[in-house]
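Please, structure for the following, as tokens.
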Amino acid sequence: MTSEAPDRRSLSGLSIGSGISRADKRNAFTAAFLGWCLDGFETYTAVIVGHQVVATLIAPNASALYFSGILAVTLAAWAVGGLLSGVLTDYFGRRRVLMFSIVWYAVFAGLTALSPNYGLFILFRFLTGLGIGAEWGPGAALVSEIWSDRTRGRGIAFLQGAFGVGFLLATAVWALLDTSGPNAWRYMFLVGVLPAFLVLFIRRYVKDPELWLDADERRRRARARSREGHDLTADEATLTRFTVAHLFADPTLRARVLKLLVLALSTLGGWWAVSTWVPQFAAGIAATHHGNPVSAGTSAALWYNLGGIIGYFAMGWFNDYFGRRKTLWAYYLGAIVLNIVLFGFVRSPGVLPVAALVNGFFTLGMITWIATWPVELFPTHTRGTAISIIFNLTRFIVVVTTLLSGFLVDAFGSVSTAALVIGSIYVLGLIFTFWAGPETKGQPLPH
């Protein structure tokens, strides 16, 4: 910190974020929650209607690679959008980037619904994904910087839970629309236009956190001193350096980024390459028992996402009580065990809902850590960049694992076998959890 900068607790006299009114905190959380919820809706829409999209635009029995292609494009676009917004949110503010990202993905989600062929669908899906990826970074940074140190784990868990709520909402809406014909998927993407109205709320009621405003002011002063030819202190020089360059130039921050990237790869690779096949896995079980595959897939998705929401919220409480590392390790262990249980042993439609629910608790619920631990390990002026790199850079690799899962399903002729093979990626989480960084339970955010 420079000599000109106020002490981290002098911003309000008490603690980070306490200078913000209760109404401002509520409005900021509401905006981030709804934005992330609708992101979840849009993301899971591609999962549950992807097979119908392929059947409509390609052929009813088209290769599984077409479905994997939809997921892979979403991931790639999400990664690009997320990386760009992470940098932008450190320079232009959490609020402004949040608004832009929401408008962007709402517009292209609507255009996706009008796709006349698979090629244009993929193009519009990529553009939509840019906006979906761009929304998370500013929202996560915004909430983390207004929440108290003692309960930040729960606050972030409630925010991350919005994504699961969006999954659940998408599943429920699809249950109402899936009987409306072969083009029912188009109506699902039209719902993605609704987030545009959220921008009106953000523009009027949401403010940037004092923590970011202070960091931005210190950066401006440091740049002004540099332009005037003054010698800069080490901290001032850090503030004038490009955020990405600083993260990888500082040995401590670089090591944290790389280790957290491995954890993120384990978490996101397991989810995208394995858990996205739960509806199709359930549909296959129903077919062998002469049931309704569509209803079975929707039901499994509903139970899975319900478990994920419970897992999100539970992880927040566990984080604040047991600490970040112990909680994450337990979730990885649970993901390994439940992945084997669900795909290796469940063959009865009656057991499937319970197995899907508990599997979702661990494999989906664990994503909470990505919005909790990293925000507490990096200083404010690089926080948006750092958490977005961790959350999004791994997605380029996950694109490969997602395509690989489609290839393995075709090669093995079985969703369960492919899921068991790729699900071993969770072992990386068990290994790296205790190396990734210091325990941050109850600690103030780095300034």
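The CA atoms of residues 37 and 162 lie 4 Å apart. Residues 22-208+241-432 form a domain with the Growth Hormone; Chain: A; fold (CATH 1.20.1250.20).
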